[in-house]
Fold each of these.
Amino acid sequence: MNEQRPGPEALGASARPRGAKEIAPGVYFLAGFGNTTFLIGSEGVAVVDPGLFINGPRVVEELRAITDLEVRYVIYTHGHYDHAFGTPAILEDARVRGHQPPEIVGHANVAKRFERYAKTAGHLAQTFDLQFASWGEGGGDVVRKAQYCPPTISYEDHLELNGLGDRVIECRHGLGETDDHTWVWVPDARVIVGGDFIVSSMPNAGTPFRVQRYVLEWAEALEDMAAVHPVAVVSGHGGVFTEDAEEMLSVTAASLRWLDAEVVRRLNEGQWQEQILDEVELPAELAESTYLQPLYGCTSFAVRDLLRRYVGWYDGNPSMLFPSTRADIAAEVLAMTGGSESIFARVDELSAGTGADQQLALHLIDFVIFAGGEHAAEGHARKADLLDARAASEQSFVAHNVLKSTAVIERKMATD
Ligand SMILES: [Zn+2]
């Protein structure tokens, strides 16, 4: 059973980690953004995913309410800011207690990720402000204030950790949301800590701001997890799956395999990305699954990442090989329509319609904005309203936040 079916708000950063629960002997689950797991052996502790930097002290408090044992390992399921950045608080706890500092364990690509993060920090901070707008001001602060604690032990494929006394932990690599992903297997308890292979939502297999994700390999990793017959699977975001863990894993894997096959089939039939994006939807039996609701990621984002994986950037339309600027195109359109007023009139009609109508209105209003004339400010204001309206019907955390945060920016541009 899934203990917590999260909506976007449950996936929000306002969920500070509190109240670790023992889900199997010596395995404690601490819900946060993302989740943390404590694996307790006879001689020491492994902390899987210390979470966001700001949540590190809470993670330590929760651990110390359970045990005084030394933390031997901090294991990163992957190097994302919401999983691998609470480490400084754990290192400080070790210092204060006179413990040896823990080994930090992650896949070999975690260190490379951290190098890329440091190199592109300005861009990342900007996109975090957009993607995590529902955290309030400064979603990008997790990037701006990041302290990087790279792995002291890294591995390529498989790693066994024997430093906890009576408990052995296995780290297994798979590609999925990232190229540096680990899922942790605790054989004696038959528990998997799955990181963001499992997010209690349609997998986040393609997201507007991020680098390539790995849809087919993600399915393979989930199938590998099902093959060990876990009694509990801890998600990276959301809850813990128990009796239905294998079903969740296989249904999720099936959806990813289906998407990969469908996009490839259409490409081989000669379709281009616009048609594929417009038409691909999960079959009803998958789309209706409680495991695959678009609460964080969504299907069209995954389709976009599959396209990026398999094809170049050419979109099938030779007009776009060397495109004119949006401003030049908009100026021509406005000259033909006799100015902004006729566009505003049509935008008003479409604004009252469906989400698809509102989407169409967004494209129309862009002509007014990009043309940059005297009505551009009003264009920004109307665009802000349209973005808010689109956001209201958007289930996906990522899409909702991008629409809401860009609405704020458009409203500001209307008055600047
Ligand atoms: Zn995550």
Amino acid sequence: MTRDELERALAELPFRLLRRLARTIAGPPAMRMGKRRIIHTIMAAAETNQARIEAAIRTHQAEQHAIAAVPSTPAEAAADPKAGKPADLGSFLEGIGVPEPRPFVPDDWQVEAVDALERGDVIVSVPTGSGKTYVAVEATRRAMREERTIVYTSPLKALSNTKFTEFSKVFGPESVGIITGDRRDNPNAPILIMTTEILRNLLYDAAGGEIDVRLDTLGLVILDESQFLGDPERGVVWEETIIFCPSQARMLLLSASIGNPQELAAWLTSIRPNPCHLIRHQRRSVPLRAGYLHPNGKLTPLFRTVAMPPSPSQAILHPEAKRLFTMYEEDASYGSRRSG
Ligand SMILES: Nc1ncnc2c1ncn2[C@@H]1O[C@H](COP(=O)(O)OP(=O)(O)OP(=O)(O)O)[C@@H](O)[C@H]1O
Ligand SMILES: [Mg+2]
């Protein structure tokens, strides 16, 4: 290795290895010595210790290829007896995969949401992955039976494309159209997927007397990701869409992250012809697990327990996650000083 290559390879080593290497070739480094100074110390002794340094680098590189699992060290667990043994990677990853197929049974809140649309508008505020699409599909099915037009809006073109594919599979391609800034397919279909901006513009035109025929029979407007109502820049689009939505159409607002759904339901009730029903719960169908993945490929649970801590104040970091993160910070600060 040339001196440059050697220095670059040393910069890739974790801090603790560099300290160990510095100790073996130049004596114990001072406690407060940073990564940059340790590398300089090693480089100063490189000429007479080249083989030893290269061996350390090669061992580390070979280890990196072999690493998959990270057991946590019992010594660290013992250091905090109150917290118990930290979760190991095996239990952290256990059960992840495709579940056994089971017959589909809608949850009570899903049935309640679809039924509530018979009586008025509905806000569904439930966690990610709970099954909001089922509510949208069943509500669409009902509106189709009544020969109404259904508009499904999302904030992103990419999400609109995904929904277009999904709805085309469920209702058949002839029944579903899409209108976004980039795409216009089957625009006279009874089910129309569009970005919220496009719907707002159609409603604007209608307010000015230019009524699009598709709005005549509008029976259901689904606003997916409706937390965008609170977006400082785009929120006004959702607000105007709700205000201008024809009174004969039902509104279904879907979101995993509205902070004040009661207030929103009260507002809809005050400006729309029928009361707005709020469906809300916080149970996760798919529990969250938090892990920490270091750029070197090491994965570890982020917290000592596999389950998410009930509140941030009860969150205790996994010792391995702490160690990897410290290593990352040291490497990152060395890298930025070196390129700066
Ligand atoms: N009652 C149910 N029982 C079992 N699985 C269900 C049920 N309802 C929906 N699912 C499944 O749950 C998964 C997530 O559903 P969906 O995409 O509708 O979630 P979502 O609430 O829209 O999530 P997001 O907030 O990410 O948009 C899908 O695979 C769906 O088939
Ligand atoms: Mg969804």
Amino acid sequence: MREYDIVVVGGGPAGCMAAKYAAKAGASTLIIEENSAIGEPVQCAGLISKRAIEESELKNIGSFVNRELKGAIVHSQSHELRIESLSPDKRAFAIRRDIFDGELAKAAMDEGAELILNSKVKHVKKGRERKGAKLTILAAAPTTSTGVNLEENGIKANVVIGADGWRSGIARMAGLTVTKNFLNCVQIEGQYEIHEPVADIFVGKTIAPGFFAWVIPIGETTARIGLCIDKRFSPHPNPLPFLKRILSEHPIIAAKYKGTQSKFTAGAIPIPTERQKTVKTEDGTGILLVGDAAAQIKPVTGGGVYYGMKCGKIAGEAAARACLERNMELLDGYEKRWQEEIGAEMAFGLKIHRLRCALGDKDFDRMCQALSKYDMIQRITNRGDMDYPSFVFHELLKNPNIFMLMAKSIIKYLYAKRKIR
Ligand SMILES: Cc1cc2nc3c(=O)[nH]c(=O)nc-3n(C[C@H](O)[C@H](O)[C@H](O)COP(=O)(O)OP(=O)(O)OC[C@H]3O[C@@H](n4cnc5c(N)ncnc54)[C@H](O)[C@@H]3O)c2cc1C
């Protein structure tokens, strides 16, 4: 039976980055991916920051960037808020996730990680060996190209990194369920009238309850159009009727959308909780969760690529150290480090998300109107950061008008907090 120090389940951005950093640190590392190609099927709007591109450490940016975007326009029912960044450092990029993820996997393999495709991990079980305990990873797959029968024999490892996305079977197998709440999302690509390279964001309970809709230009005449809903605040749990409605009835979207559709995708984004547990150690073995499997996403925007890669690096390094030093207690350092890096931001984002869930269309209008004032726009432009949005929210609360608006929403927020955990 083949043995590795570390098996990473899932070849998305979090898993590839974890594998890259584990292999780089000297641990024998294998990625097991259930799909036949890395990065497919795509379930993402592909909007990431320049910082996220830097975090990816990929050089051939032109191969996966669709378009550079200079800002965003937030539309409420009767107002719009234009946030444009003059600094190239704050720009965002629409990317092709299939190519991006493929490049991340190649980078992991360049560091020595191995990859098995077409193999869905079904079971992780602990067994005792002569040299100590090991995890056996069994996957539903016939004999692979490398000659390993994963179904019968499995693969052994000291550490399993569950980077298997929002449905994470590894989290369930390890008893590490991190969240029960998800945003339900749908998206299409279609022909769209585009005047400038900005992302359009549409807020409102009637448009996308508990979240927002987006139009992201990816070419001169093509855009990704999608939305997510938080079903706890929606009259029904399916986001598709909301998408159909904005495509046919929204005054801006329906006027610009040309009716052609391709690449329909439906997926989910985990909503983190305050009680995340992402490490389990037992008898000299360890299981870590990373990326969507650990609900490491930004609750304000739903973005998970940047945090997934960032936490993947920490997970890969911690797992390699634990294996090489034969000390599984070192794995606890992973949870401590990722919490230090993004825990406060996620907790603050969660509060903003709850507040947003409680707001009605008129509240969004008032908010957009108040924020449209020149000094507010300046603050948003100067301090706004799509990866760390709490900076700008703290800044905005210094304005008495915004503070009063938020204060009025507190009652709704408290009501929302009672309704959701
Ligand atoms: C509609 C939509 C739009 C989004 N837009 C954005 C955006 O614009 N920007 C952004 O940053 N984020 C966005 N996200 C979130 C982003 O896609 C995720 O946060 C990100 O993909 C998480 O990366 P990951 O590596 O943790 O998981 P994933 O990318 O989901 O990768 C998990 C991998 O594990 C594999 N896998 C699962 N189970 C098994 C198993 N048992 N055995 C083997 N392999 C398995 C899967 O096939 C998959 O390849 C969006 C999400 C959705 C649904």
